[in-house]
């Protein structure tokens, strides 16, 4: 299985030089600017949360969380639309043809993934940057499902990162300035931090799969840091064992500045590899 995945990774790297042909040149000049790069369009590959997982979160977390956000004055955060998901990789490109190119370049997905969502925690794009920040629910980092998920991040990053036109806006400006050397390298070479890469023939893992419940550009001051820690502690007590589930498809989506999914474009089955155009409901190809 491991050999097959890394063969796919190598093929993804080879194919990407062709699938990227015709896409906009990659421009990293925004990394030298003090402010965030202008956000035009971000696309991503994500696993949708199954309906039974959303049902648990709706019943035990989302209502209370939304009410708490409103009390904290975070009305925008409480109303931010999102398709609940776990990210594979995000890229930024102003070209509307990018999703179709992504579908063409997408490496063969893994078989259905058995994973457990567990442990709520707040996190910042870069510590001390001020924003953006999130409240996340993590993934248990063990088991075959997790290993396959991580290997697919490596393959997908190699195949899709060349389709970007530059770095993700949210990792430029004040966030890029606060990153360490490893983060800088990933942003310059992949357009995003938090992805796995192959280096000297070995997989180097920076990916941290999770689902996000709160997306925020509000300055992350001491009041909000304390409040989000309390939220995480509260919901960890509500779901101490987490939520076990199986991911059965992967989607190509459009994403807002902070990482929330605003539109699902294509859906690919992990069971048989078939692809669906979500807007039309029609299967693509054979």
TrEMBL record:
Residues 1-22 form the signal peptide. Keywords: Signal. This is Uncharacterized protein. It comes from Achromobacter agilis.
